[in-house]
Write a structure and sequence with these properties.
This protein is of the alpha/beta class. Helices cover about 40% and strands about 15% of the residues. The protein has two domains: about 1-130 and about 195-265, Rossmann fold (3-Layer(aba) Sandwich), CATH 3.40.50; about 130-195, no CATH class. Pfam families: Abhydrolase_1.
Length: about 280
């Protein structure tokens, strides 16, 4: 059973959902909201209290100032506010894509509130040798969105990320809804630059109390996030844990994804190894 809630914050309102009972597990994305986690959240809620939410400014989480940027630090603070609302002292966290950057920022800023932080495919471009080129590409993506609109930006984004190009089936292209356009503006104009430009303090993370696990999709080899996963894991002195599917493996294979996540979270909080035997692969 899923219960829906809203939480007033100093700069807006956060929408969140709670499922199940047991130790708290937060699933977070950016810009992806709560809805895409539905299937995997239901599975994990069999033995966990699972919290999902729409990140700030996205969908049902509104901001008082729509021009406010979304940074990993602010999103990490939002997760803490949600834990406070739930009455939870600490939680395990699975962040995916931009939400993985949120999870890393959360482990840095609020280490006392996180047990294990699983960063699934974080687009931490500043860790790459070609960071300057990636920074320029990000600025070009933002300019493309502002100049040419959503479809042109999506195509360029997918090409840079390594996603396969979608072949047209001849059907007319549907115009995006107001909500899709609003969320896309939040992503391209107010979020993308800050997420990809985040520079984690990997020395502090490596020596800190939070167990940080890097997750990589089994099918994500061609993706840019494969490189960022390897770079983050290398700086943390570990190796990525392989999850089923690709960048959206939690939706592509929710049962397989949930099974791997359960195994990862079984490890003792102080365990700094890559994870249970058989889960590595890099």
């Amino acid at each position: 059973m899923t219960s829906a809630h809203t939480l007033k914050t100093p700069d807006g309102t956060l929408y969140y959902e709670v499922r199940g009972r047991g130790p708290v597990l937060v699933l977070t994305g950016a810009p992806m909201g709560a809805g895409k986690f539905g299937s995997v959240a239901d599975l994990l809620a069999r033995d966990r209290t699972v919290l999902t939410h729409d990140p700030r400014g996205i969908s049902r989480s509104t901001l008082n100032d729509p021009e406010q940027d979304s940074t990993p630090e602010l999103r990490a603070d939002d997760v803490v506010a949600l834990l406070d609302a739930l009455g939870a002292d600490s939680a395990d966290v699975l962040g995916t894509s931009g939400g993985a950057v949120t999870a890393v920022a959360l482990a840095e800023r609020h280490p006392g509130r996180v047990r294990t932080a699983v960063a699934h495919e974080p687009p931490l471009m500043e860790l790459l040798p070609d960071a300057a080129e990636q920074r320029a590409t990000t600025e070009d993506l933002i300019a493309t969105y502002q100049r040419e609109g959503l479809f042109a930006a999506r195509e360029r984004f997918a090409a840079n990320a390594g996603f396969p190009r979608r072949e047209s089936d001849g059907a007319p292209v549907q115009e995006p809804t107001e909500r899709v356009l609003a969320d896309s503006t939040r992503f391209y104009v107010h979020e993308l630059r800050h997420t990809t430009g985040y520079v984690p303090d990997t020395d502090a993370l490596r020596s800190g109390p939070v167990r940080v696990v890097v997750g990589l999709g089994a099918d994500s080899g061609p993706l840019l996030t494969s490189r960022t996963c390897e770079a983050l894991a290398d700086r943390l002195g570990t190796v990525p844990i392989v999850f089923p599917g690709g960048h959206g493996g939690f939706a592509e294979d929710p049962e397989g994804f949930a099974a791997v996540l359960r195994e990862v979270l079984k490890s003792p909080p102080g365990d700094r190894e890559p994870g249970p035997a058989g889960l590595g692969g890099h």
